[in-house]
Specification:
This protein is an alpha+beta fold. The protein folds into two domains: 246 residues, Bira Bifunctional Protein, Domain 2 (BirA Bifunctional Protein, domain 2), CATH 3.30.930.10; 91 residues, Rossmann fold, CATH 3.40.50.800. Helix content is 40%, strand content 21%. The structure holds zinc ion (2 copies).
């Protein structure tokens, strides 16, 4: 038997219901804030990610699925959503500002472990062409509103500022001189990071590196006037809201294009080290990819991590009550089909098995499929103009007049 690839997931029907619940709530909320849907290809020129996500980032460096196609073009499965969205805005000359949302699979060749998948779905937002710190705040507000809407109640938002191209070089200098006599204590990855992109050392999970980072100077204390003003205003919006947040001075996020605000969402049920999503401001990305200057901010949430957190929390949406119509012969089958049509017209989800099995066998099927209710149509019921409604949990049966069935079901099924 051929099995699925390592680090990739089948979403089975039980989780599928929860996934749909998450997505539909996400779409409902972002539309309230004026976001429109965008879909970009899963496959892009690898160069797009080299230029945006950054050649020194772990994602591009180690985790991308990159290969040559039959015409020797170097392509990558997208590791994240933002670069494709920005490329699409530039290429299709969309007017700015734009508020866009996307959802779809992302691919990273990581070592599979809890919550880390090689194919995972992201729900993302991009505000392109707005520079106010209010946009940074609003995007966090949307995420938190979404979390509470789906009953994910234990989330905290971590925030930080990593400055801009004006103030970051000064910090880098100070940071490098701080590291000077500690190089041998850094992990091999960080020794390499120190040469290519020292800020990324803050991302390292290695214990020894964490210790060094703890004592180190922080980028937040080296912000230029503009960046500091932006961060202060952003914090004051957060302060006035009832969003639970913490400043995390080590939060730099693993992407090259971030400027000023960075943030991350964590769910206590998954543990502090695993985030369910995050994002930040990226004021220069559009220009770097060949477009106009357009200050922007966005986030991406991991759909599977939200699913795992919800399951961990046991705050799952209530299961939909389901119903099966069963029948005792071919004549009753045609009567049953009419009833099923009527139920569906009235938004009552219902199932009928067309295989003409015995009542006993159909009841067994209903049981296997976890049906909450069964409507039985037999010769006797047809003669009397009624249906038999069976509650599969209590086993109680009730005879209902044909005309009253919809009314009765709406009462018990709660549609
Ligand atoms: Zn700055
Ligand atoms: Zn390290």
């Amino acid at each position: 038997m051929t099995k699925r690839l390592k680090g990739m997931l089948d979403i089975l029907p039980e989780d599928g219901e929860i996934i749909n619940f998450i997505i539909s709530n996400f779409e409902k909320i972002v539309k309230l804030y004026g976001f429109s849907f965008i879909r970009t290809p899963i496959l892009e020129y690898a160069e797009l990610y080299y230029r945006s996500t950054g050649i020194t980032s772990d994602i591009v460096n180690k985790e991308m699925y990159t290969f040559y196609d039959k015409k020797e073009r170097l392509l990558s499965l997208r590791p994240e959503g933002t670069p494709g969205v920005i490329r699409a805005i530039i290429e299709n000359q969309l007017v700015l500002p734009q508020r866009l949302y996307y959802l779809g699979p992302m691919f990273r060749y990581e070592r599979p472990q809890k919550g880390r998948l090689r194919e995972h779905y992201q729900l993302g937002l991009e505000i392109v062409g707005e520079k106010s710190p209010y946009s940074d705040f609003e995007i966090i507000k949307i995420a938190n509103q979404f979390f509470s809407q789906i009953f994910l109640k234990d989330t905290t938002t971590l925030v930080n500022s990593i400055g801009c191209e004006k103030c970051r070089p000064k910090f880098k200098e100070v940071f490098l001189s701080y590291l000077k006599d500690k190089i041998e204590f850094l992990c091999p990855d960080c020794q390499e990071r120190k040469e290519k992109n020292p800020l990324r050392i803050f991302d390292c999970k290695n214990e020894k590196c964490q210790k060094i980072i703890k004592e180190s100077p922080k980028v937040k204390d080296f912000l230029c006037f503009e960046c500091k003003d932006h961060f202060d205003k952003f914090l004051s919006f957060l302060e006035k809201s009832n969003i639970k947040y913490k400043i995390d001075e080590n939060l730099v996020r693993g992407l090259d294009y971030y400027t000023k605000t960075t943030f991350e969402f964590i769910s206590e049920s998954l543990g502090e080290k695993i985030s369910i999503g995050g994002g930040g401001r990226y004021d220069n990305l559009m220009k770097e990819l060949g477009g106009n200057d357009a200050p922007s901010v966005g986030f991406a949430l991991g759909l599977e991590r939200i699913l795992f957190a919800l399951k961990e929390n046991k705050n799952l949406p209530k299961e939909k009550k389901t119903l099966m119509v069963i029948y005792d012969c071919e004549d009753s089958f045609y009567e049953a089909l009419k009833l099923v049509d009527l139920l569906r017209e009235n938004n009552i989800p219902s199932y009928i098995n067309p295989d003409l099995e015995s009542l006993k066998k159909q009841l067994k099927i209903a049981d296997k499929l976890n049906m909450k209710y069964v409507i039985i149509i037999g010769e006797r019921e047809r003669e009397k103009g009624s249906y038999l409604l069976r509650d599969m949990i209590s086993g109680k049966q009730e005879e209902i007049e044909k005309e009253k069935i919809i009314e009765k079901l709406k009462e018990v099924i709660n549609v």
